User: What shape does this take?
Amino acid sequence: MSSPAEFVLELREISKHYLTHRAVHSISLRIQRGEFFSLLGPSGCGKTTTLRLIAGFEEPTSGEIHLNGAAIHHLKPYQRNVSTVFQNYALFPHLTVRENVEFGLRRRAENHIAKRVGEVLELVQLTGKESRYPAEISGGERQRVALARSLVLAPDVLLLDEPLSALDPNLRKQVRAELKNIQRRAGTTFLFVTHDQEEALAMSDRLGVMNAGELEQIGTPEEIYLRPRTRFVASFLGALNWIDGIGVRPETTRISKQAPETGARSRPATILRSTFLGNCLHVEARLATGEQAMAEVSRLGENFAPGDPVFLWWQPADELTFE
Amino acid sequence: MNRLRAWFLAPSWAVMLSLFLAPLVIILAYSFETRGAYGGTSLPWTGESYQRLGDALYLGILWRSFWIAGLSTLLCLLLGFPLALFISRSGKRKGLYLSLVILPFWTSFLVRTYAWMFLLRDTGLINTVLQKLGLIHDPLPLLYNNGAVVLGLVYSYLPFVVLPLYATLERLDANLLEAAADLGAKPWATLTRVVIPLCASGIRAGAILTFIPCLGAYLTPDLLGGGKSVMIGNLIQNQFTTARDWPFGSAISLALMAIVMLLLILFARRGQEGLI
Assistant: This one.
């Protein structure tokens, strides 16, 4: 049975086990055509291995990978119509920008190479840099060459392995917007691997959170942030206060010197420190049980000094509950 | 500071001047003199030795030296490349394999060449085994021909190709090979379009390190060629010994040196173009 046409890529219980550990364990995933999907997780969670399994650099121990409804897990990398943007870009240093972008087209003996290379270089705004070598262009430009080199082949899915991590932090936010823009204009399905939760939330249509080789949750950024299914997901995406077995986000946690209104849940606490962050204050407090919690409060509100007795409170609707 | 530098360089200068430049000048002088009756050289000055270089006999030997050295270099590259590639992908065993490549150097070159003679001669190991097995009746002519010389040279110089090739292959980013496959390159295209161009410097170094000594090889053609497969090195040796024609021997030596230098300059030019 083939998967419905709207799913371009489907992983069915994919596992990659090594002698000593399970890099990827029983991951099932369906990616829609044209979607920007992110795999998010800490380093070593198996997200890059998953990407490498799809690209064909690794063979799955068990499970199936389907591209456009056809099994591809037994095919060689050069037989799969997916393409990878590597973390270090892996541009061919002996070839110019143009030759790098042409590389795949020439291997497939395709027509209109010059025209297609011109178009894709325009899409990634590299027109005029055609005869430069990778060593002669900036990191951001290299990343766009890597992108162009893959996009020109019109892959069914573009696999991106932490493509922003090699960039200057100042450049990252700008490139993030550019990347999203290119994805929208090219209409290509992106499978984006990152350990940066902000990146994943800002760019993705949907994302999957991975931990220790398993996929913990799949959903839209809102779903995952507002309704995390596990404690791991909740704490990996944003900060989390853990109070008496209940999770509360710092931005929904309140602190006041007076007891709160009825209906709110509250705990007595003592102020530890207060950090001024410009637009808000980060206030840390210790509960009677010894647990610490943090609240993001307006700088226009009350002032807190270390040692002040306060109430920590929140609305029951803002509580996060886990399986 | 500059004075200190001069002192540090002095030993090198002394060695180069006394052991390289001075003999070269002597050889140059010899090559323009007349042969002495019992070896050595005497006046008057003449260019006769250089005229004799154009003799068909000597051009033939020069030509043979070139093709034997060229063929040996090519075979070394063809054998050495897969070997170097294999070693560079061998993980923890790299060190072991590399020491195996270098292992022959622990024994005298002369002894190793004699060992080949024992293997290849009519009553040698290979012929004896083949005859005992009934595969051949008469012994195969394995020794004292061009083939034996090429075999000996390839055997001797293979490590000189493997080591520089290994050094470049080792540095090759494995992601580049994955990227090539990812972009649709089959293994052969990855090899020819990515691996070989990126290892050009190692290939060049290996080729030079093999071709030049092969061109001037003396011991291998003498022992394995048995006087039938004379190379330029043997010709030079002959002039200084039995032929007692030092001026001609000097002229051949200088001609060989000039040719090698010309080739090196051409190679260096190509190398610079290829560099990014």
Notes: Residues 56-88 of chain B form the longest helix (33 residues). The mean pLDDT of chain B is 85.
